[in-house]
Amino acid sequence: MAAQVTLKGTPLTLAGEPLKPPTYAPPVCLVDARNEEIHVGGALGKPQILITVPSLDTPVCAMEAKKFNEALGALGEAVRAVVVSMDLPFAQKRFCDSYQVNGIEVASDYRYWDMDKYGVRIAEGTLRGILARAVFVIDPQGRITYTELVPEISQEPNYEAALSALRQLL
Q: So where are the chain's domains?
């Protein structure tokens, strides 16, 4: 059975079940803010954190991206940190430029819906087609070590738990 999240208490079914540890993190193709394809997931030889949000053009998502940018920016090339939404690359670039988001990557899944492999696309309701709020931490060998599917879309994730899981891999 597919997982559910809520939006202000209204249940929304996902198109799948979010991946959990110790599942292998499938490689996915996304489009970055420069409108170029990037690949994340899989075994990259360094830790990854994939953060999915509904839209960077909303207050909670914007705050989440900014907080992760601040927390992860100092790690530089030691980790691959990507915030993924369905926003178009042009909107993502505007967001990054407006808020000086340069410590993490921002990418869109609008082209391939590859994040379906992670089970986080909303399958019904007013938010059908966008991504639920979730965090995946992946070890250098491509195994998921931490997953959080935020049950209520209007709430932020547990930053400390996600960052702690990532720090354990460094």
A: 21-112+132-167
Residue 2 is predicted with a pLDDT of: 86
According to DSSP, residue 121 is labeled B
29 catalytic? Reply is no
Fold of 21-112+132-167: Glutaredoxin (3.40.30)
The active-site residue out of 25, 28, 40, 61 is 61
Q: Look at residue 1 and tell me whether its pLDDT is greater than 80.
A: no
Check pLDDT > 90 for residue 118.
Answer: yes
Q: Considering the chain, what percentage of its residues have pLDDT values greater than 90?
A: 96
What is the distance between the alpha carbons of residues 69 and 51, in angstroms, rounded to a whole number?
11
Helix (H, G, I), strand (E, B) or coil at 54: coil
The four Cα atoms 153, 56, 108, 81 give a dihedral, to 10 degrees, of -90
